[in-house]
UniProtKB/TrEMBL annotation:
Gene3D superfamilies: 3.40.47.10. It catalyses: (3Z)-decenoyl-[ACP] + malonyl-[ACP] + H(+) = 3-oxo-(5Z)-dodecenoyl-[ACP] + holo-[ACP] + CO2; a fatty acyl-[ACP] + malonyl-[ACP] + H(+) = a 3-oxoacyl-[ACP] + holo-[ACP] + CO2. It is found in: Cytoplasm. Belongs to the thiolase-like superfamily. Beta-ketoacyl-ACP synthases family. GO terms for cellular component: cytosol. It comes from Gillisia mitskevichiae. It holds the Pfam family ketoacyl-synt. Its EC number is 2.3.1.41. This is 3-oxoacyl-[acyl-carrier-protein] synthase 1. Residues 2-420 form the Ketosynthase family 3 (KS3) domain. Its main location: cytoplasm.
Amino acid sequence: MEKRVVITGLGICSPNGVSIPEFEESLRSGTSGITFHPQLKELNFSCQIGGKPEISETKLAEYFTPLQLRGLNSSGIVYGVISGTDAWKDAGLEISDGSSPDWDTGIIFGTGILGVDKFREAIHLIDEGKTRRLGSTSVIQTMASGISAYLGGILGCGNQVTTNSSACTTGTEALLMGYERIKAGKAQRMLVGSCSDHGPYVWGGFDAMRILPGNYNEYPEAASQPMSANASGFVPGSGAGALILEDLESALERGAKIYTEVLGGEVNSGGQRGEGSMTAANNEAVQRCIVGALKNSKVSASEIDLINGHLTATSKDSVEIKNWVQALSSNSVFPYINSLKGMTGHCLSASGSMECVASVLQIDKDFIFPNINCDEVHPEILDLISEERIPRKIIEEPINIIAKASFGFGDVNAVVIFKKYV
């Protein structure tokens, strides 16, 4: 018999909050975590702003031993370990130091580009003939699965421990992969999430593509404008989000807090055919992904209260909403829709998991966070949906079902459906 899957733990490492209470408060108040980065100015970037979690040395010492911190130079691993460990503790799980791993719990924690600064450090040392100075952790900090390996060792997980990578879809895909494993009875719990490094060596390629805003360097908090008529490109960000998925029977047995239930979802690709390309989505594939997620979750379009969109603050925002309108054609009233990226920027491979955390909080606490920096909605969007469906102030009302979407480079898509647990 297929298992029901619920969420029992949350962790976040966001530009606008490095704990769940801090993050929730920022969501409610519409607080941006985007700041000016002098290093980007020194390197002649057009866009000199970005979203970066602030982690103090004291905070680091809470999650890493002095030995683990020695030579640690991967911001993605730092963000992932903090959010993953916090989600574990939030779920009421203990970190065992015994000799036997937890065979019933696994990890799927994704990333895009990991350990870029460590790579740069290693390249310099190798070019200078100083290979022996690389240190013993250079490999695990730069391998894609470094984040799941770090978390697996810290938490002692003995089920599947792996890393996925699907550009901006990574975090939402990781959640659905973990969901499927529990649903099939192959694990009781899965820690799922994703992380992204910060800095010029990650963000530089996007600046070169001229898809980042270069006219808000003096006004960083106003720069990210999803769905706005004035949107001029996405602001790069970084961080990590983490969630504990658990089969319902296990969660009830141990008396865990249940944030919400995962009903299902869909993952697909547009094959870079039709309108699809390496950087643009195939609209038919996006619509099929939305419809497939609803079908797999046994949910009708009219039951969706809120869409947490991908919505990056580019010209593609109106295209995304057109795809939602067409996919939900049976729905007489379009759901509310919001985007986290106005507050955090686009956190790349971390975005899906961070936005899943934000979605779950909205269901659990019955509120819809505002779309900041969207004073004037893009006219193409207003041709599709009414303005009141794009809240600019917090809405406090019961939220039963949220559809969360992520669309990534490579023409890949993921949609997950969350429902209040009753």
